[in-house]
Amino acid sequence: MDEAIEKQLSPLRVRVKEQGDKVREMKAAGAPDIDIKKEVLDLKARRKELEELTLKLDPPDTFDRSKMADLVKRRFFYDNSFAIYGGITGQYDLGPLGCDLTRNMLEEWHKHFVLQEHMLSVSCSILTPEPVLKASGHMDKFADYMVKDTLSGECYRLDHLIKLHLEKKVSDKKTSAAEKAELGLVLNRLDGMDVGELGALVKKHDMKSPSTGNPLTEPVEFNLMFPITIGPSGAIRGFLRPETAQGIFVNFKRLLEFNQNRLPFAAAQVGNAYRNEISPRSGLLRVREFTMAEIEHFCDPDDKSHPKFDSVSNLEMRLYSAEAQMAGESVRNITIGEAVRGGLVANETLGYYMARIQQYLLKIGIKEKKLRFRQHMANEMAHYACDCWDAECLTSYGWIECVGCADRSAYDLTCHAKATGIKLSVERPLPEPKDVETVTPVLDNKLIGKTFLKQSKEVQEALAALSIEDAETLDKNLTADGKYTLPGTSFELTRSMIPSLKREIKKVHVEEIVPSVIEPSFGIGRVFYALLEQTFTVREDDDKRTYFALPTIVAPVKVSVLPLSSKPEFEPFTKQLASALTKCNLSVKIDDSTGSIGRRYARTDEVSIPFAVTIDFDTLSSSPHTVTLRERDSTLQVRIPVSEVAPTVQRLAASELQWSDVLARWPRFAQQEATK
C-alpha cells in the first residue's frame, strides 16, 4: 500500500490494536460477559472505521453502478418481480441471460465439487415441519428486531431505520463536528447492539416513521421464516426452509447407508431458501427468496485430515484472520498448507474446502484481488462452530460475504438425534475390545405392532436407540404412571409393551461417534451479483459501450454468428455454422440485422458473448471458405476456415485452448463494415 495512505491508516490501526488487546485482557481476567460485549462492540466499530477508510483512500477501481444497472435492465439479466404491478422489494426475476449465467455457474459448481469430490446429491423438500426447525435452533434464534408505524402499521427493520436516521443527521450541515464523530461511532457499533440499546437510540433521537412522521411502536422480535400450514386442515405447522442444510442432516442415516456406512462422505444440494427480510436492500445482496448451493461433509471428529489436501497445500490465499482483525492488521497472503500447519485454519478438511472455493470463484471470473477469506471472530462464531471463514468479494457495497465455510462440529446431528430419538451416528472400530454395560428395554413386539401398525418399526428403533439414562427414566415412569411418551414423538407406551429392562455386560469391538460436519455454503445470488459487478467493463475508446467480461465457461451465450449482408448467398453459411456450433453443445445467437458490423459487435458484447463469427464477402469467394473470428475483450480478429470454427470455439469454451493460441495459428484480420 502507498506510504502516504499507510500514514493516514496507521493511527486507526493503533486504535484497533489497543482495543483488541483490551478485549483479550478482559477475557483472560474473567470479566463479566456484558462488559466484554461492550468492548467488543467498540472493537468492531474501530475495525469498520479502518476498513472504510482503507477503501476510500485506496479504491480498487472506478465503478459506475448506474451504468451497470442500465445494462442489466436493458438486456434483462434480472429485474424486480411483478414489475408491472409496481414490484416487490427483495424479490427478483431472472431474465434469459440471468438464467443462462446462473445455470452455467451451477453446472460448473456441480462439476467442480459434486463430480470431482464424488459427493452424494439430494433434493429435499422446501416445506419444513416446525419440529425440524425447533430442533435446529431456527425457531428460537432466527430473528431480527422491528418497529411499526403506530397509525399505518408499516414495518421497519430497527437497525436499518436507525442507520438511515443517523446517516441523514451526519450529512446535515447543522450537525456539529463533535456530534458527527459521536454518531459515526454509533453507526459502526449498530451490528452488535441488543434490542435495549437499539430501542434507547430510537428514544434518544426521537425517531419517527420515515414515511409518515408518525410515532413508532416499541421494538419487537420478528422471526424471519415464512410460516405455512401443511395439509387441508392446517393442523401441521411449518415454514418455508430458511436454508437447505437441514434436509441433508435429517437424511443423514439414509445417506450413510448409501455410502456403505463409511466416513468421510459429502452430500450436496442446490435449491431455493426463503427469509422474510423486514426491509430488503442492496439489490440482490439481501432478498427474500434466493438460491443456495450447500455441501455437508461428514467426517470423524477425531480425524479431520483430507486425502487430497496435498494437492492444494501450496495454493496461496488472502486470509484475514480474527487475530489480524483485532490487531488492526491487513489481509495476509499465505499458502493454505502453512495456514493449517500453523493452526490458523482449524484442520485440513476445512482448509481443503476453502482452497477449492477459491479455485471455483476464480474460475468463474471473480477477481483474485477482490477476494479474501475473513475468519469469524469469537463473538461472531456460532457457539457450536470450531472455526468459520467467509469468502468475501469486494463490490461497490464493500466486502460482501458470498460463501461461508464452517466446521459445525457435531451440533446438527446431535440436535436432530435428541429431538427424534433416532441414532444419527457411525460405528468406529476400537483399537481393542472393551466391556460395556448395556440396558435394553424388553419389548412385546406383537403388542407394539398391533398398537402402532406402520409406525411400529419407528417405535422399536427409537427404543433401541435409548441411552442407559433414558431407558431407566422410561422404566421409572412406566412403573410410577403405567405410561410414557417417547421424547420428541407422540408415541405413548404402556408397561405391557415393555415389561422390563435387560441389563448385561457386553464386549464391544466398535464405538459410536457422531460425525463432525464441514459446511461450504454458497449464496448463488450474491456470487452472481459480485461476478457481474467485477466483470462490468467500459470500453476505453467509448464510454457508452459497456459489457460484462464474463469468462467463456459461464457466459450465457458462447458465440454469435453475424452475416455481413442480407443477401441470399450468405444464408447457407449462417445455417452451416449455427448447426455445427450447436452440435458442439455451444449456445449460439444469430444476428442478421442490417446494421453496421460495429453496432452488432457492440450488441453481442453487451450480452457478454465472448466470440463472434462474421460471414463476409471473402467467405463467398475464398477456397476453402473462411470467416473471421473475433474475441470480445481484446476485439482482435483472425481469419479462419469455416470447418475449423466449431472445434476451435468448443476448445476455447472448455479452456483447452487460449485466445493467444488462436492468434498464433491464424492470420490477423482488420474489421470491415457491412455492405448491403
TrEMBL record:
Keywords: Aminoacyl-tRNA synthetase, ATP-binding, Cytoplasm, Ligase, Nucleotide-binding, Protein biosynthesis, Transferase. It comes from the Eukaryota. One of its GO terms (molecular function) is glycine-tRNA ligase activity. It is found in: Cytoplasm. One of its GO terms (cellular component) is mitochondrion. Pfam families: HGTP_anticodon (PF03129), tRNA-synt_2b (PF00587), WHEP-TRS (PF00458). Its main location: cytoplasm. One of its GO terms (biological process) is mitochondrial glycyl-tRNA aminoacylation. Signal peptide: none annotated. Residues 215-563 form the Aminoacyl-transfer RNA synthetases class-II family profile domain. It is an enzyme of class 6 (ligase). Its EC number is 6.1.1.14. Homodimer. NCBIfam families: glyS_dimeric, PRK04173.1. This is Glycine--tRNA ligase. It comes from Hirondellea gigas.
